[in-house]
């Protein structure tokens, strides 16, 4: 039987210690420090938001000040992926965490930031032949429609999502991006990218880093398994479950929803492995860290 209070403290301590190691928590010399938290409404990002919110509440109670502010970003991919209905869960998140800023953007808004590059690709796409006046969402759908496989479509969606998050953070002058990826999710990504022949990119996809413009990217939940986060959400009071949407569904591209992706296979594999062999999951992530 898990002792509720001890387990909640265990999870929050794991997260806050990693932030402290990166000199993130700090003192109160820069209360305007802003972090961007991409919210998928899965157990990982919801847990991260809850832990940071409690941390700020404690700071406010003890000193009357906070050392950072949170800006929550949700990306609506419903026009391009099998994203389950999220509006109710998102509204519950707004009500649960009223002191934080929330923004919702659609995936096709990346065309506003990466317009020259993506417009060039779109203009050469066979899907646009004879119809150059498509709306912004339809342009992105056209690009995805000509890709040869579910894996390649998912890759493009993830790449565009990452670019949109970075662009949003820079536009809103955020100092950090905190991703809620667990050890399990990072292990999935490690093997998936390796299987695609992109193992060399892993240091920038699974480890703390900094962009060319000085934006710091951190993974404060990299020492926690997904099953631990599922338990955290289940025993938190009041319940966090109304804030949840199946996060894994965000990775599926509906252009060919029956196709299996490499990412989907890795997710299924580690879902079973972490139940009986959690050390294997952690070892995969530690191995990728050695490539830095």
Commentary on this structure:
- The protein has about 290 residues and is α/β, with parallel strands linked by helices.
- About 50% of the residues lie in helices and about 10% in strands.
- The chain contains twelve helices and six strands.
- It has helices at about 5-20, 45-65, 85-95, 110-115, 115-125, 135-145, 150-170, 185-195, 200-205, 225-235, 260-275, 280-290; strands spanning about 35-40, 70-75, 100-105, 175-180, 210, 215-220.
- Strands 3-2-1-4-6-5 form a six-stranded mixed β-sheet, with helices on both faces.
- Strand 1 (about 35-40), helix 2 (about 45-65) and strand 2 form a beta-alpha-beta unit.
- Helix 2 packs across helix 10 (about 225-235), helix 8 crosses helix 11 (about 260-275) and helix 11 packs across helix 12.
Cα-based radius of gyration, to the nearest Å: 19 Å
| Class from helix and strand fractions | alpha/beta
**Helix and strand string, N-terminal first?**
HEHEHEHHHHEHHEEHHH
Q: Give the spatial strand order of the biggest sheet.
A: 3-2-1-4-6-5
Number of DSSP strand runs: 6
> Could you say which overall geometry the principal axes of the C-alpha atoms support?
globular
* Main sheet summary: 6 strands, mixed
Number of helices: 12
User: Unreliable runs, pLDDT <50, ≥5 residues?
Assistant: 247-257
Average pLDDT rating: 85
Helix content: 40-55%
| Cα separation of the termini | 39 Å
Strand portion, in percent?
5-15%
């Amino acid at each position: 039987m898990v002792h509720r209070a001890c387990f909640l403290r265990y999870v929050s301590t794991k997260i806050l210690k990693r932030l402290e190691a990166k000199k993130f928590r700090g003192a109160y010399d820069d209360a305007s420090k802003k972090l961007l938290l991409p919210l998928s409404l899965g157990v990982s990002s919801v847990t991260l938001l809850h832990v940071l919110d409690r941390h700020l509440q404690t700071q406010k109670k003890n000193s009357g000040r906070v050392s950072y502010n949170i800006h929550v970003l949700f990306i609506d991919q419903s026009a391009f992926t099998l994203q389950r209905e999220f509006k109710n869960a998102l509204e519950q998140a707004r009500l649960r965490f009223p002191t934080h800023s929330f923004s919702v953007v659609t995936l096709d808004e990346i065309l506003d930031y990466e317009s020259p590059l993506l417009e060039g690709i779109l203009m050469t796409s066979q899907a646009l032949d004879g119809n150059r006046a498509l709306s912004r969402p339809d342009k992105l759908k056209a690009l995805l429609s000509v890709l040869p496989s579910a894996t390649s479509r998912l890759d493009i969606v993830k790449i565009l999502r990452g670019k949109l998050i970075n662009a949003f953070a820079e536009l809103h002058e955020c100092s950090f991006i905190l991703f809620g990826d667990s050890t399990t999710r990072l292990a999935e990504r490690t093997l998936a990218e390796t299987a695609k022949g992109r193992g060399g990119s892993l240091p920038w996809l699974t480890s703390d880093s900094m962009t060319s413009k000085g934006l710091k990217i951190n993974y404060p939940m990299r020492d926690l398994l997904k099953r631990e986060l599922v338990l955290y959400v289940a025993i938190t009071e009041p319940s966090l479950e109304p804030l949840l949407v199946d996060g894994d569904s965000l990775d599926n591209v509906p252009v060919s929803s029956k196709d299996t992706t490499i990412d989907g296979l890795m997710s299924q594999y580690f879902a079973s492995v972490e139940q009986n062999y959690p050390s294997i999951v952690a070892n995969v992530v530690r191995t990728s860290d050695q490539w830095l």
